[in-house]
Amino acid sequence: GFISLVGFLTVFRTSQAYNRFVEGVTSMHKMRAEWFDACAAIIAFCKISQASEEATLKFQHTLIRLFSMLHAVALAEIEDCSSDDVGEINAFKYELIDVQGIDEESLREVQRCPARVELVYQWIQQLVV
Predict the structure, then answer these.
(1) How many C-alpha atoms does 14 have within 13 Å on its Cβ side?
(2) pTM of the model
(3) Cα–Cα distance for residue pair 104/50, rounded to 1 Å
(4) Number of C-alpha atoms within 13 angstroms, CB side, residue 106?
(5) Measured CA angle at 76 (ends 24, 119), to 5 deg
(6) How many CB atoms sit inside 10 A of residue 2's CB?
(7) Residue-wise over 10-39: b if at least 16 C-beta within 10 A, else e?
(8) Residue pLDDT, tens place only, 32-76
């Protein structure tokens, strides 16, 4: 009887853990898809922009860089890392889209800021508005 109870509890707990993992992975994919849709929509709206082509391209390139950075900092936020050292966070080692297009001071600020996702999100809002 005891072995059956332990076996049942083990299977139940493993099943619950797996379901939580699948839900987390699904949410991450949904987050990425939503941000891709938002970025693509903003880029599409630029087709009717009355700004110069150079200004429009600069806006689009900056927007794409910021969305790339937003995804990386969101992954860093949920990463299971107990260290405060930015160098030990694996998500900061991901390749970003043209990170050289973002000034050094902004990159340092992202590394220092405790609310990185909110910071990059605000930068995107400021750029769009």
Answers:
(1) 6
(2) 0.81
(3) 30
(4) 14
(5) 110
(6) 6
(7) eeeeeeeeeeeeeeeeeeeeeeeeebeeeb
(8) 999 999 999 999 999 999 999 999 999 999 999 999 999 998 988
